[in-house]
Design brief:
By secondary structure, this protein is α+β, with helices and mostly antiparallel strands. The chain has helices spanning 22-35, 44-55, 72-77; strands at 2-3, 10-11, 60-61, 64-65. β3 and β4 form a beta hairpin.
Length: 88
Amino acid sequence: MGETAAEGRKICRKCLLKEYDEKAYKETIEQYIQRMGSDMRADDDIYRRRLDICKECDKLIQGTCQACGCYVELRAAAKTGRCPKKKW
């Protein structure tokens, strides 16, 4: 395990999902999206529509796209993000 210098929080780099703190995971994803510059982040409407499509996909498992391995919230938040199954 390592720690982020800025926050002093532990980040588990080699843990299984069952060992990972879900609250910390959610906070990490949200912080990453917030740190994206507005020039890199999709607008909220597009982001929500993308996630709605992902939620209907059979490749979505616990926030991870099984088609490409990405965290769908991160891919959907990026202005240049694309669905590997070409659904959005």
